[in-house]
Amino acid sequence: MGAVEIVDRIKGEVKLEQDRVFSEARAKAEALQKEASEEMELRKQQFIEAEEEKGRETKERIVRAARLKAKKHRWDIEEELIQKALEAAMKRIPTVKSEGFKGTEYSPILASLIKEAAQSIIAGGGAASSELEVVISAEDETYVNSAMLKETSAEISAGGVEIDLALSEERMRSVGGVIVRRKDGKIVVDNTFEQRLERFSTNVREDIVKELFKGKES
Q1: Is 215 inside any structural domain?
Q2: φ, ψ at 136 (rounded to 5°)
Q3: DSSP string, the chain
Q4: Are residues 161 and 114 in the same domain?
Q5: What's the structural domain count of the chain?
Q6: What pLDDT was estimated at residue 18?
Q7: 81 and 137 part of one domain
Q8: Residues 127/184, Cβ–Cβ less than 8 Å
Q9: In b/e form, how buried is each residue of 110-121, taking b as 16+ CB within 10 angstroms?
Q10: Do both 109 and 26 map to the same domain?
């Protein structure tokens, strides 16, 4: 083999090696480019998902805030309507006094309130004295008399505890109802309409809400 052939052969081998190196370099470059593209796509997807998650969280916060605002608005409306209903009920008291309630005149209603208050004192062991005072408002003087108190005393005493009800000279400020107390003032039962509504306010409010919002979503 002559020098020319040897040189040509070396050139050929160099060319083959060069082509192999270039081929491997291109393959590696393409692999790196693909890996970079996939990494970029992954990061892009992660970014999109993160933004979507932020969007969902933001949406959920907005929805929660809207629901809370709606509930508060509902509560405000309920409270306003309840107050109006209670005020309307109190305004009906004068009509009850003049016309009665469900066929019962106001005087027997007061007698019932007196009896209930007196029995409460007895049940609590507070009737050490047989004399109990009845306090009424100046407006209710015409509905309470000695005969009514005597009859009510007899009804209570029939239960086994002798009670004598007397009308106090003191007058209270109230839309109606009574206060019954021991003569010594140590035990007092406030059975005015204001206090009855206050004591039964939870049940009263529940009944009012059921009536006012009947058939509506809570």
Answers
A1: no
A2: -130, 175
A3: --HHHHHHHHHHHHHHHHHHHHHHHHHHHHHHHHHHHHHHHHHHHHHHHHHHHHHHHHHHHHHHHHHHHHHHHHHHHHHHHHHHHHHHHHHTHHHHHHH-BTTB-HHHHHHHHHHHHHHHHHHTT--SSSEEEEEEEGGGGGG--HHHHHHHHHHHHTTTS--EEEEEEEEE--SSEEEEEETTSSSEEEEEHHHHHHHTHHHHHHHHHHHHTTTS--
A4: yes
A5: 2
A6: 66
A7: no
A8: no
A9: bbebbbebbbeb
A10: no
- Residue type, position 185, single letter: G
pTM: 0.59
Containing structural domain, residue 123: 103-206
- Report pLDDT for 3: 47
**Gap between the Cα atoms of 7 and 14, Å rounded:** 10
* pLDDT score recorded for residue 148: 92
Contact (CB, 8 A) for 177 and 109: no
**pLDDT value of residue 8:** 57
* Cα–Cα distance, 192 to 78 (Å, whole number): 25
Show which of 33, 61, 91 is a domain's final residue. 91
Same domain, 85 and 159: no
Does residue 22 sit in the same domain as residue 79? yes
Indicate whether 211 belongs to any domain: no
pLDDT, averaged per 10 consecutive residues of the chain (218 residues), comes to 55 65 74 79 81 81 84 81 77 85 89 92 68 92 92 86 89 92 87 84 71 60
Same domain, 117 and 53: no
CA distances 53 to 40, 47, 48, 61, Å, are 19, 10, 8, 12
